[in-house]
Amino acid sequence: MIEIISGTNRPGSNSRKVAAQILEIYKRHNAAARIFDIAEIPAEIFSPASYTEKPASFAPFSQRILDAKGLHIITPEYNGSFPGVLKYFIDMLQFPESFEHKPVAFTGISAGMWGALRAVEQLEPIFGYRDAHIFPARVFIPGIFNELDESGKIKSAELVQRLEKQAGGFVDFVKRIG
After folding, report:
1. Residue 105 is part of which domain span?
2. Strands 33-37 and 103-109
3. Which of 12, 35, 59, 144 has a Cα at 20 to 30 A from 41?
4. pLDDT of 20-70, one tens digit each?
5. Is the whole-model pTM more than 0.85?
6. What does the DSSP assignment read for 36-103?
7. Which CATH number fits the domain that encloses residue 131?
8. Residue 178 predicted with pLDDT over 90
9. Residue 48 domain-assigned?
10. What would the pLDDT profile of 66-96 be if each residue is shown by its tens digit?
11. Could you give the number of structural domains in the chain?
């Protein structure tokens, strides 16, 4: 199973909209995939006590990451970086096994002109440190507010084609590593 991580807990996020379209793309590639929305993690994980003992309600979320064959992270850019909630989520997962030898792909989205390039480039060393296998084909979506139609779908056929190529390549990458 490829977990498509929507990397923010912002209500109505564009990350979630892009993740939904990427899920459709994986289905066209006959890949088992589903969306992992960070907005759904239990609020009690944010208690300072979670650093020493994770709440039982977090266990199913942690287990999904452990069981995943690959991770496709959709990250927005917030203030020149990725969302703090994504970093906190990463910190709460089991070390080192959550990402060890796990294939990881990245798609960045932003309102600005760089498409979350900085956010992705800051996430890659974190996953590298955790011994993940980073898929080199990244997709950056700048000007996200202009790229989505009223229903939240990406309007640009060229951009959808890049996401198709990324997903198809990542499916092969996961199979080779797995």
Report:
1. 2-42+54-177
2. unpaired
3. 144
4. 999 999 999 999 999 999 999 999 999 999 999 999 999 999 999 999 999
5. yes
6. EEGGGS-GGGGSGGGGTS--GGGHHHHHHHHH-SEEEEEEE-BTTB--HHHHHHHHHS-TTTTTTT-E
7. 3.40.50.360
8. no
9. no
10. 999 999 999 999 999 999 999 999 999 999 8
11. 1
